[in-house]
């Protein structure tokens, strides 16, 4: 019984000391932060601009009949891609270079490399309509995976078909 009492007394002293140390550190940290840290950014124009940029609204409601301002022009590369997609059916080589080359140029994910007649012969034997359907809808075969439209949902069906026709012509 005496050992239990001795353990309990020691335990209470240790816990009390740890709590006192924690409270002392809390007050010391508060004092040091108040004394040495200057967090008033009201005089700092860079900080104030950053705050106002984060708080400004993302849009606005137009309440006048004045014409709306025109949006800014996108980057040259983005404009060219958008224009190429908007023009409708692109030639197969351009679509292949933009979307298909990553897999069909390297053989990634089991994709048949363009120009490899042996790899393409089994696929060509199934018919061009089947190749078109698999390239548009996606396909998982024994040797690899073809995501729908090659993972480029922004391509039209005609563009995908043109790219397939181009790859088939180059791989016969």
Topology:
Elements: H1 2-36, H2 45-55, H3 76-86, H4 92-104, H5 117-125, H6 128-137, E1 139-140, E2 145-146, H7 157-170
Antiparallel strand pairs: 1-2
Helix pairs in contact: 4-7, 6-7
Protein model, in words:
This protein has 172 residues and is mainly α. It contains 7 helices and 2 strands. Helices cover 60% and strands 2% of the residues. The protein has a two-stranded antiparallel ribbon with strand order 1-2. α4 (92-104) crosses α7 (157-170) and α6 (128-137) packs across α7 (157-170). The longest helix has 35 residues, at 2-36. It is elongated, with a radius of gyration of 34 Å.
Features:
172 residues; mainly alpha; Cytochrome Bc1 Complex, Chain D, domain 2; two-stranded antiparallel sheet; 7 helices; 60% helix; 2% strand
Short description:
The chain has 172 residues and is mostly helical.
Instruction: Note the run of SSEs as H and E.
Output: HHHHHHEEH
Number of β-strand runs:
2
* Structural class by sheet pairing and helices: mainly alpha
What is the fourth-level CATH superfamily of the largest domain? Cytochrome c-like domain
CATH C-level class of the largest domain: Mainly Alpha
> Order of strands across the widest beta sheet?
1-2
Main β sheet profile: 2 strands, antiparallel
| CATH overall fold name of the largest domain | Cytochrome Bc1 Complex, Chain D, domain 2
**What is the tally of helical segments?**
7
The CATH architecture of the largest domain: Orthogonal Bundle
